[in-house]
Amino acid sequence: MSVTRADTSTLGRWWWTVDRPTLIALFLLVGAGFVLMLAASPAVAVRIGAASRNSFIGKQMVFLALGCAVMIGVSLLTPRQVRQMALLGCLAALAMTAATLVIGPEVKGARRWLSLPGFQLQPSEFLKPCLAIVCAWLISLGHRPGSRFPGALAAVLLFGVAALLLKLQPDVGMLMVVAAVLFAQLFVNGLNMFAVVGMAGAGVALFGAAYALLPHVQSRVQRFLDPAAGDTYQVDVALEAFGNGGLFGRGPGEGRIKTVLPDAHADFVFAVAGEEFGFILCMILIAIFGFIVIRGLLRLLGETDRFTLIAATGLLTQFGLQAFVNMASTLHLIPTKGMTLPFVSYGGSSVLAIALGMGFLLALTRRRVGSGGGEA
């Protein structure tokens, strides 16, 4: 059944106002995630002694299906409903992130998860998109006619609460992403050059403090600068995978690296793509991520609503930066960081949180009468 422009139902209005090219690109990433999970996860399941070699595939199919439902459902919301949902989500995510410090299991020296029946929840993943929306809301409130509300200051204080919780877990990578998102939002809001330099200096100081105070951060940086300084097994194996794959790859299911790479289905799934499908598929994946970010930014060029502009900028920065960190660390361009590749890596919390963020983005960038972009 086709949806015509004369259709005034909720679905009809949504179809003709949502950014369909971005929606298609996101579904392509979901499809790539499913294919790469078929390629990478059975070997990992066998190696760790899982009940079934398809256990990861079954769970990820559920996560991807739920993620698509969340993304479509959230994209139907109005900007007001997006703000309300993000505010409730931010408060809940902050509370649950704090709860991980008390009742969360310790994994590799960090407390980032809550154990639920059959599922490990990472609340900080949901904090990222919700915090970006709430900070944008606070900043925009300070620009209302006659308003004396210190919106930017309120956003910085809220970020400070989130940053403290992330530091205590600790999750420096997540903290850096959240900080970069806020910086991008403040910059778009009209941050003067003195403040830009000051915040850049604060970022450098934050990284220096993390390097000095957190042994695992120091170890990763040292191993990046000098491979002889410690174990670089995963990165070495990942680089070998890209070399094995060449231009066109060894073929689906023909990769060998996934049998020895511990996180082949998660943080290093990009290496599996490189070995089995080759350089060309890797470039296609990079192009899809780039298309989503660039198209989103171009769609904002005519936007006159400050909240929409700041919120969408934050969501796009978060999405693009997370993809960059995953792929760049796999290629040994930056120190390794356990960060998932959006919609491609295994992980329920990651898939659902990214779906929530992209649903927010699709909802905010829908064409509406009176918006800067007009009506589609």
Automatic annotation (TrEMBL):
EC number(s) per entry: 2.4.99.28
Major place of residence: membrane
Membrane disposition: Multi-pass membrane protein
UniProt keyword Ubl conjugation present: no
Keyword Membrane listed: yes
Subcellular compartments: Membrane
Catalyses which reaction(s): [GlcNAc-(1->4)-Mur2Ac(oyl-L-Ala-gamma-D-Glu-L-Lys-D-Ala-D-Ala)](n)-di-trans,octa-cis-undecaprenyl diphosphate + beta-D-GlcNAc-(1->4)-Mur2Ac(oyl-L-Ala-gamma-D-Glu-L-Lys-D-Ala-D-Ala)-di-trans,octa-cis-undecaprenyl diphosphate = [GlcNAc-(1->4)-Mur2Ac(oyl-L-Ala-gamma-D-Glu-L-Lys-D-Ala-D-Ala)](n+1)-di-trans,octa-cis-undecaprenyl diphosphate + di-trans,octa-cis-undecaprenyl diphosphate + H(+)
One GO CC annotation: plasma membrane
Enzyme class of the recorded protein, top EC level: transferase
Pfam families: FTSW_RODA_SPOVE
Stretches that traverse the bilayer: 23-49, 61-79, 85-105, 126-143, 149-165, 172-188, 194-214, 277-298, 343-364
One GO-annotated biological process of the protein: cell division
UniProtKB keywords: Cell cycle, Cell division, Cell shape, Glycosyltransferase, Membrane, Peptidoglycan synthesis, Transferase, Transmembrane, Transmembrane helix
Single Gene Ontology MF annotation: peptidoglycan glycosyltransferase activity
Top-rank taxon: Bacteria
Family, similarity comment: Belongs to the SEDS family. FtsW subfamily.
UniProt name for this protein: Probable peptidoglycan glycosyltransferase FtsW
Origin species: Humitalea rosea
Lineage start: Bacteria, Pseudomonadati, Pseudomonadota, Alphaproteobacteria, Acetobacterales
